[in-house]
TrEMBL record:
Function: A translational regulator that binds mRNA to regulate translation initiation and/or mRNA stability. Usually binds in the 5'-UTR at or near the Shine-Dalgarno sequence preventing ribosome-binding, thus repressing translation. Its main target seems to be the major flagellin gene, while its function is anatagonized by FliW.
Subunit organization: Homodimer; the beta-strands of each monomer intercalate to form a hydrophobic core, while the alpha-helices form wings that extend away from the core.
Subcellular locations according to the entry: Cytoplasm
Membrane spanning stretches: none
Molecular function terms from GO: mRNA 5'-UTR binding
Gene3D superfamilies recorded: Translational regulator CsrA
Record-given protein name: Translational regulator CsrA
Gene: csrA_3
Keywords: Bacterial flagellum biogenesis, Cytoplasm, Repressor, RNA-binding, Translation regulation
InterPro entries: CsrA, CsrA_sf
Amino acid sequence: MLVLSRQKEQTIVIGDNIRITIVEVKGDKVRLGIDAPRDVTVHREEVFLALAAGEPARRAA
């Protein structure tokens, strides 16, 4: 695993077309902005694992 330190409004670039920007840091939470092509799926890990296990997707409340 590569571990990088970033501050608010700084960006990490993956490949030629994926950008992850630190939007907000508040306490122990970090908000990320992800800019990726529409054909690249992006999920939180718990959603990805649920989908991989065949569980139906649930909408956030």
